[in-house]
Amino acid sequence: MSSQAQQADRRTGAPWDTGQQGIQIRNLNKSFGKKHVLHDITVNFAPNRVHGLLGANGVGKTTLMSVILNHKFRSSGEILIDGEDPRENAKVLERTCFIHEDQKFHDDDTPASLLRILPTFYPNWDAELAERLAKRFHLPMGTRAVKLSRGQRSALVIVIGLAARAPYTFMDEPYLGLDPGHRALFYEEFARAMAEHPRTVILSTHLIDEVSDLLENVVMLEDGRVTVDADIDQARDSAFVLRGLEPVVRELAGDRQILREHRLGNILSITVDGSATDDDYRRADEANASVEPVTLQELVAARGMRGSDNAEMSL
Amino acid sequence: MQYVRRNLALYLTNRVNSFVIAPAILLMVAVIMIIIGLIIGIRTGLPLPSEVSEGFKYNQAIFWAIPGFLISHGALTANRGFAGSLAFGSTRHNFWAGTALGFVITSLVVVAVGLVLLAIESATGYGVGVSYLTVTAMDNGNPLIVAISLFLMCLMSLFAGMGFGGIYRAAGVVWTVISVVAVVLLLLGLIAAVVAWPDFWVDLVGELGRWTIPLGLLIVTVIAAIASRTVVRFAEI
Questions:
Q1: What is the DSSP letter of A215?
Q2: Terminal-residue alpha carbon distance, chain B
């Protein structure tokens, strides 16, 4: 068992051992007919961490999560969860929960009926948390799933995802239907749940800056390839922004790879691949330009706009 | 077994669809049969004369009453329940096995209601002399034949629906339509075989006697169950 799996329950101080070894993926490929969606993906998801799965639309985030859990079949490659192949492996899969923003339920399911049945699927189901979340999200417990609004469906899958306390929780844009107030509520409850009961979470999202404080690790996909697999701080250090008058900025950038350009009047902002050096700060200061840290959102936007240039980053 | 039980519980969550609607349809068609008897009775008088009552022995209402709903119920279960079950950490096999167990329970509920109806019908002819379950195809209301036939008819419909729903889930509407057309063509081929070689079929029915319908249903049910298992095994969501 990985030592990373052994932590203390931060609320009670009691030992909290999830017994996880994490997820190992080697040379994973997935094609739909002639369309190659995932390209030779090799990545590890360490246990008891919150992993952000980031990337532009259509890069394969949902497909990767679906293939890990065998909801979609891999074309080739190896996936291990806790050291075992998850395909039709009930002992492994019962430790997982995969919720989508557009999760399909039976039309006649209601939040009440689902929350009543789910403890049979999840031995660690937190009924108290489910009840509290349902109240905070004003979830109409007796309304059929087919009649729930988009926001209510998002709230329902969030309640399920957090209350299940599944050791491996996959969340695919779970809060897209929520308004900003309820998204803030989700972030608060998510952070609290992770603090009290750490688990391995893989969270795909477009609202990157909103969740960046929740993430501990970042896996970025571009065109079905992993281009960043790093601690969140390392990821942020993997690029920087130069801002100033165009000639100055271009001179400061030199021949380094420019990931993205953004112009506002005479001011040019460029996202540069790699870490900024002390020399960059000094020269920028002397030239009345600025060196700024890149936000995760900017980083994803920059790398997502590189098109087919998918050279793997070294971090 | 705990994994199968979870999926059974998930299936049984939809109590109205699992327990109520199919028996209600069974009862509703019985009422319709009585109303048809009453309408005929306007001309013939009530209770219905023996030759009219005898004609009712050959009606096939029971074979059309239930499958429609149960096929749609099976399809919805596969289409939506499957996605939920896998999201909650189930395997495809356990989803199928738990749901199949649920199908058995739904079918047994229909059988129970059917046997109560049969007892009433046998005793009263519903007051007008109509036949709904006491028909020739059900060995004139032989309780064993009625029970087995109803049970298999329900299971067959549910598995067939699960198969079509699974195909829709996995491959979309085009392949669902193609599969429905293929089944229809198969049935038409069967009808053609009956027309082409009537003596063979008459001899077969003569040999099988009262077990003709249950055995036919059993064969189709097994095929539908295997097909649904196969579709679920290879369906992606």
A1: -
A2: 24
CA–CA distances in Å: residue B140 to residues B44, B48, B58, B167, B230: 23, 18, 10, 38, 37
Task: Write out pLDDT tens, residues A215-267.
Answer: 999 998 988 999 888 898 888 888 999 999 999 999 999 999 998 888 898 89
Residues making up chain A, counted from first to last: 315
- Whole-prediction pTM value? 0.86
Q: Are B110 and B19 in contact (CB under 8 A)?
A: no
A117 and B9 within 8 Å at the Cβ level: the answer is: yes
Dump the DSSP string for A30-93: EEETTEEEEEEEEEEE-TT-EEEEE-STTSSHHHHHHHHTTSS--SEEEEEETTB--TT-HHHH
Q: List CB contacts of B72: < 8 A, sequence separation 6 or more.
A: B161
Distance between CA atoms of A214 and A61, rounded to whole angstroms?
Answer: 18
* Residue A50, CA atoms < 13 Å, CB-side half-sphere: 21
Interface of A with B in 162-181 (CB under 8 A): 164, 166
The answer to whether A66 contacts B236, with C-beta atoms less than 8 Å apart, is yes
A contact residues 199-218, partner B, Cβ 8 Å cutoff = none
Question: Is there a contact between B237 and A89 if contact means CB atoms under 8 Å apart?
Answer: no
Q: Comparing C-alpha atoms, which of B158, B155, B133 is closest to residue B71? A: B158
